[in-house]
Amino acid sequence: MTPRQAGLSLVEVMIAMVIGLLLLAGIYRVFLSTARTAQTTQALGDRQEAIRYVSARLAQDVRMAGYRGCLSDTGAVRNTLNPNPATSGGTRTAFTHTDFRYRYERYAEGFEAVGGGWSPGLPSGFPAPRAGTDVLTVRGPIDNELFTVRNMATTSADLGINLITPAPLSAGAVVMASDCGGAAIFQISGTGVTSVALPSGGSASIATLAHAATGSSPGNWSNDLDRAFAAGAQLFRMGVVSFYIADSAQGSGPALWRRVDSDSREIAAGVENLQVLYGEDSDGDGVADAYRRADQFADTAAWRRVVAVRVALLFSGTRDRAGFTDSRRFDLLGVSVGPFSDGRMRRVVTLTLALRNRLP
After folding, report:
1. Rounded to a whole number, what is the distance in angstroms from the first to the last CA of the chain?
2. What's the CA gap between 85 and 96, in Å, rounded?
């Protein structure tokens, strides 16, 4: 009579353990592959979202550079900001400001990374960008347009706009009033509220913007805007917008920053490099004949010939992929960077953006 089996033999236990370990190893490999795929997908998603947002932000700011409403680029813009351009041999419409913030005649301007610095030199007080990366600056309206609601009695009278709470403009703001016949750039010296009669009877309150001659920064050398703007004229707050690369405030490496006047904000992490070329129209047909570096523009007359901007940005994922080495070198408008071995995947995005207000 065969005895009944009471358990497993040692050989059977070892075989079962080996099979179990093989199954666990397979499951672990699947887990690692799934986790790596999810990490890669997330990194690609982060990078693609950064590309989409940065491209849209750059395009909007560059295309709005030098915007004057319905006034053409050849129309006269009265300059009342200190100093009086006549003292420097200019006309009433000339801009002779040495202050970086008020060079509104330069719709686009840049600073080329050269060696360990920038050419031309960065403005005083500008945050230090990442070494080897360029700085792009554009000037023009930075807020939504407003409209005047009453005719100016004289060329030096206060401007009246709709009463809005909170007030969209305050004393010290630099603004441009514009219509199809001309424009004026000035600093608001004070604001107020006044009552005006309505054609249908009764009255309404409107906000008033004064532009007295003052010595404040920069102040107005004259309160004469050279034309009495009528109701319906456009009004814009003017500013200077700069893009540059600096370390992220989140500690995740380099990032793209956007500086409006003196306010800098990080807008996209994982942007490691920025290189810029400027399209110069040398024959006046509104088309760029050559793209040059910022250090090849000697003066305002040269910057006024810029009709387009070509920007190259190096984007990386914000997440590391263990064991991944990118052996490629990346070309950013003639500047070569890489290879990288930090586990991040990279992509170069190049944009060519027209300053649409310089187009014929």
Report:
1. 108
2. 6
pLDDT tens digits along 231-270: 999 999 999 999 999 999 887 789 999 999 999 999 998 8
- If we measure between CA atoms, which residue out of 189, 100, 173, 168 comes closest to residue 139? 100
pLDDT in tens, 1-11: 555 656 667 77
The CA-atom distances, in angstroms, between 150 and each of 17, 167, 168, 207, 228 are 90, 18, 18, 11, 10
Neighbours of 277 (CB within 10 A): 24
142, 241 in Cβ contact below 8 A? yes
Alpha carbons within 13 A on the beta-carbon side of 17: 7
Dihedral in degrees, nearest 10, Cα atoms 37, 39, 44, 45: 110
The candidate with the shortest Cα–Cα distance to 39, out of 347, 343, 270, 348, is 343
Pairing of strands 306-316, 271-280: antiparallel
Nearest CA-CA partner of 346 in 322, 333, 329, 323: 329
Question: How far out from the chain centre does Cα 351 lie?
Answer: 13
Q: Is 237 helix (H, G, I), strand (E, B) or coil?
A: strand
Name the percent of the chain in helix, strand, coil, to the closest 5: 20, 35, 45
pTM for this entry: 0.84
